[in-house]
Each structure stands twice: as structure tokens, then as C-alpha cells.
Amino acid sequence: MGVKELTFTDFEPTIRDNPLVLVDFWAPWCGPCRAFGPVFEQSARKHPDIVHAKVDTDAERELAAVAGIRSVPTIMAFRDGVLVYSQPGALPAAVLENLIGQIKALDMVEVRAKIAERKAAAQT
Fold this sequence. Notes:
One of its GO terms (molecular function) is protein-disulfide reductase activity. This is Thioredoxin. This protein is an alpha/beta fold. The protein has helices at residues 8-17, 31-46, 61-66, 93-105, 108-123, and strands at residues 3-5, 20-26, 51-56, 74-79, 82-88. It has one domain (3-123): 3-Layer(aba) Sandwich (Glutaredoxin), CATH 3.40.30. Strands 1-3-2-4-5 form a five-stranded mixed sheet. A hairpin with a 2-residue loop joins strand 4 and strand 5 (82-88).
């Protein structure tokens, strides 16, 4: 499938319409971002069932701001439209592979229940 470039316009539909999406927020001037690029591309080839997407934070400043990106690279993972991982820093291939396994293994009923609990507690 390869890596998809995301913009402000197609970010939300991509997250909503795909079961698992990994997003690499990066910048062309960022050395660690450039080093992580091939790792991310290799993962995309290995996992065609997962949408691997990149957001150029220089070109998509508004999207980066809305997503709360303060450091690049930042990796976000969405499962069934829910943000389940967000962490700055480039990941070694083995760590990215482990992360993918953990995300695939998530019980999304349980995740949604915990989100609902937190929302209810915040409202009281």
C-alpha cells in the first residue's frame, strides 16, 4: 500500500474510515524524521492492512497545531477512530513492530469503556 500523505482535509476521514492508522508527523529539516522515514516505509510494506500516513508539519501547520504536535517526529496511532498512542521520537523497527502488535491486541470495548469513565468523572 505504501505511505499516504495526509492533509488537514483528509486527516479526519482517513482516521474515521480505517480500522488502524499510524501517523508520522515529521518535518523535512528534521534529521531523526528523515532517519525514521525508511523504518516507517518498511512497516507500511510489511503491514498493508494498516494505513501508514505522514503529515509534513511545515506544510500542514494548522493540522499539526490541532493535533497538538510540539516535537517531530511524533507518532500517533488510531484504532477504530480512537487515538490509542501518541509519543514524540523516532522508533526503531523492532519497537514499532511491538507497538503495532500491542495496538492490534487492544480490546476496543474496554478502551471505549475507560474513555467513557474518564469523561463521566471529568463532568462530576
